[in-house]
Amino acid sequence: MPDEILFSEFDLIYLTYSSLQREIMFPFRIRRRKFKTRMLSSFLVLSVILTFWMARQEFSYSQQKNQSNKEWNECVAKIQSDPSIELSNTTLISDDDNIYQTYRTKECPSIVQEYFSHPPPTQSELEFPIAFSISVYKSASLLEKLLQAIYMPQNLYCIHIDMKSTPTFCAAVTELIRCLPNVLLAKKSVDVIYPHISILHAQFNCMEDLLYTGKDWKYMINLVGQDFPLYNNRELVLALRALNGKNNIQSFHHPDLKRRTQYAYEFKRRMDGSDHKAYKPVKTYRKKSPPPYNITLFKGANHVGLTKGFVEYIIFNQTARDFIDWLSDTRSPPETFYSSLQQHPGVPGGVIGLQPEFVMRAIDWFDKEKDEANYECHGKWVRQICWISVRDLRWVLGWNKRNMLFVQKIPFDVSEDLLRCLSIARERRVYGSYFFMTRTNFSDTSYLRSDVEKEMMERHESVVT
Question: What residue intervals traverse the membrane (predicted)?
């Protein structure tokens, strides 16, 4: 039968198998199409959600930026306002019991999140931890603001509480740092007297505790409760790295050194004195021997940035210990100790001769001999030092002080405007930037720089990349 199509057994089996396969696979094809449709739908939904989230984040960032700009513009208006215009004078509540009650009633996770939140540290910050020695005697509220401003988990902090501090203040500080494992209380406490060797002993006690933790850190900065940072931690690290392993200490010749060290001094109790002025240095007729080890005497500020090697030298080296003993009956030994060792041969991190720029403090002194100050003080003069107000931020954040890391002195009855404006400025700055052009005594008209934020964004992008 030539016209008929003949099927072999194999053909019949193949056709039967193919038909069954189509019947079997048909539901799977439907399922596969449904799966693809669901995947596409899910992808579209996720894309919409992600787009919405990104838009919301951008909107939130824009709102925060606008709010920050608004707050900063308000600060600028107050900083540059006419001194004849009275500003609001809302002061920080400095009730130690209030700090004690606030912190003792909260759990540690809540305290860290609510009061000590911080940006994630950069790799540069992690590789360059900083140690801080903080000497305090009153105002737990001001200490809280300082600690919040400088706190980072990779750093190390030691707080020395003056022996004359009240029990309420001690309890408040203990509760304040209870949940911060990298913040220590000095194991030994001294009665700090101005301008006595006890100022140094308070710092030495913290130095010992910082060294004995066994933790790594690169530099130590000594602070008091009336200091406040002018840059965030990332910029502090940048500034300290630029020191290239050298201490940052004022060290210069001064004719007053002979008067301070030629004869021994005794500290007599004042009848009307209080706090650190409870004692008065009185010169005796006992002439002192020359400094040990042929140490040449120099003068400088008590505010220092020290390498870890120099701190170890102070605590463990016999030369340093003997020099401390020699200085113990001189006038203002803190202003002689660091500055003299800085130029003594063989001291770790020391610099002999011309010193690098001193960057530790922005401070306004009144020179009694010249009867003038570097800047007009809009706050108040206390012991020839300007206790600053918000209007003083014009020179604090000005060109002359652009490399300074901290400012002193913050008043104990500090206005909220001052701390708020300092905090806003600190987060907007990159190291070496400034907001105002200033000369001494404000003989020029100040103006606000407009490119600081651009510098900050460029620095941020370089850190990220």
Answer: 39-55
